[in-house]
Amino acid sequence: MECLLGLLKVRVVRGVNLSICDPLTHSSDPYVVLRLGTQKVKSSIKYHSINPEWNEELTLSITNMMLPVKIEVFDKDTFTKDDSMGDAEFCILDFVEIAKRDMTNVANGTVMKTIHPEKENCFVTESHITWKDGKVSQDIILKLRNTETGEIVLHLQWVSIPGVAR
């Protein structure tokens, strides 16, 4: 059995300029699926929108910080298989390593690390892992792959498990 390191709360904030999958209405019915290893969590469906606002919190148990979090966006269809609207992924290694540190003497609002957009990641802009109000958090904007357009805005927050060593 793998050791639980902590929980990753992922707030799916919104989608920006997602693909139009329903040409008659010039919109889509998007939802987001997050995967980490064998875990899979899903947002609600936002009907008739290419700029959906979810503001939903999905939680993943972290047992292996080497695995990437994979994101897929789908268009909900009633009579056919849901259409893919793109995908993205991000590495949580730096985030978890920082979250496991002793933050006793770290000032509130400290940027612990900055992640820059690179060829190897899906980041649209630089992203800061921050210690604020007693929590490690990160705001991320990801460019969707395998589609012509679309971005997903996420907010990550670490939840330590009492009794689990840092």
Measured between the Cα atoms of the first and last residue, the distance is 19 Å
SS strand fraction: over 45%
Instruction: Examine the coordinates and then state which fold CATH places here, giving the name of the CATH topology.
Output: Immunoglobulin-like
Give the overall silhouette. elongated
- Classified in CATH, the superfamily is C2 domain
Number of domain units: 1
Determine Rg (CA atoms, Å).
Answer: 17 Å
Q: Would you tell me the overall average pLDDT?
A: 94
| Oligomerization | single chain
Tally the helices.
Answer: 1
* Alpha-beta classification: mainly beta
Order of helices and strands: EEEEEEHEEEE
Strand order of the largest sheet: 4-1-10-9-8-7
What is the number of strand segments? Answer: 10
- Proportion of residues in helical segments: under 10%
Task: Describe, in plain words, how this protein is organized in 3D.
- This protein has 166 residues and is mainly β.
- The chain has a single domain (6-159), classed as C2 domain (Immunoglobulin-like), CATH 2.60.40.150.
- Helix content is 4%, strand content 46%.
- The protein has one helix and ten strands.
- A six-stranded antiparallel beta sheet has the order 4-1-10-9-8-7, with helices on one face. A four-stranded antiparallel beta sheet has the order 3-2-5-6, with no helix packed on it.
- The two termini are 19 Å apart.
- The model has no long low-confidence stretch (mean pLDDT 94).
